[in-house]
Amino acid sequence: MPYVFAIVFLFLAAISALLVWRSYRSGVESGAAQAERRLADSLAQRASTVFGRGVSAQEAAHNLLDVMRSAVILTDGLGRARYVSPLAGHLGVVVDGHIESNEIRDMLNQVVADDTIRDREIEMDVEAESGRITEREPVYLRARIGRIADIAPAGGASPDPDDMSTSGGADRLYAVFLENISEQRNFERMRRDFVTNVSHELKTPAGAISLLAETVSDAADDPDAVRYFSGRISKESARLTELVQKLIALQKVQDDDGLSAVDAKPVDVLRIVREALDENKVQADAANIDLRMYVGDDTVGVTADAEDDTVGDGPAAGKTPAIIVNADADSIKTAVKNLVENAIHYSPKGTHVGVSVKQDDDDVSIRVIDQGIGIPAEAQSRIFERFYRVDPARSRATGGTGLGLSITKHIVQEAGGTISVWSRPGEGSTFTIRLPKANTSKNQA
Length: 445
Fold this sequence. Notes:
Blueprint: H1 2-48, H2 57-67, E1 71-76, E2 81-84, H3 86-91, E3 94-95, E4 98-99, H4 102-114, E5 118-127, E6 136-150, E7 172-180, H5 182-218, H6 223-254, E8 265-268, H7 269-279, H8 281-286, E9 290-295, E10 302-303, E11 324-327, H9 329-345, E12 352-359, E13 363-369, H10 392-398, H11 404-414, E14 418-424, E15 428-436, H12 440-444
Parallel strand pairs: 9-12
Antiparallel strand pairs: 1-2, 1-7, 3-4, 5-6, 6-7, 8-11, 9-10, 12-13, 13-15, 14-15
Helix pairs in contact: 5-6, 6-11, 7-9, 9-11
């Protein structure tokens, strides 16, 4: 009898082990099937995105937003930003995670209301490049806003249309694209001003010459009148010639081939500055203005007619080592000459105009300093525009064309440098050209 119970027990144990083994196999197969399904779903999801098979949509989308030329903001309908690209961050449109621009918020509200993509050009005031809190400058943006997805509620529940937390577009995701078109708008404005100004500037001396010629003809029997009006014709003709020459010079420096790398050669800045001063000496003497040149930390300076191998009787007296930059010599001389000429025109008689040349480890600075009437703060951002004049009446009296500073700016930029201005009305102006210093060891090699 005990044998029978033992056999039954073994039989039941075998059946139990078989059932456990089958259950284990079933679980393994079920888990494998689920894993295969999850993998298939993942691959299907990747294949269904715009990035194609085998690409992580999340990673690709994030990187795509970062490399786009336009600034990008992803936000819900309430203006709560979920993503802000680096470009958008620099514009200051989003503050503390919320869109602060009233115009952008207004566009977003309209898109939320009718679910229609909208485009608009907007203008904003942003912090100026100077970094001063009180200084703002306008920025023109092309804005485009549209809905791109719905936002699923937490936990995957279906959205409740009566839930106040999802009203006003809070359950939808919108894309805000901002393209900075300030440069384009400024260029269009400058082009319109250029056409208007060049037409006026050419018409004025041409009309004056025609009228004076008729007057000379009518006064043929009066030698004194003929001499007077002939002199006026010569003056207007010279003004017209100067205007045309400066227009040609401006076109040359704006042309991509105007100042090629072939033109850039080692140039002694001291020699260039001295030549520029010499060419303005006649005008300076006529206006009773003293021209002086300063090198390094010299505070005494040397007059324009001093010998070439001296820099005055101050601390830097004696021969001065050359200060070398890689540039086109004639172009740099034109740039300095234009600045000195302007300084003479806008300085009272009996004052002086100084040109300082100084070098540091990387740059060479050329400063043209005057004691003139100065430039108002609101005009300083526009003085390098073509034909722009702070005082048009004074420019006409001195024969200015309004092109000198524009030409100077282009020349300096082509040479890899920068130009800036400091000025205060009644105290004078300082124009500073900075050029990269040449590698003299390389040049000598």
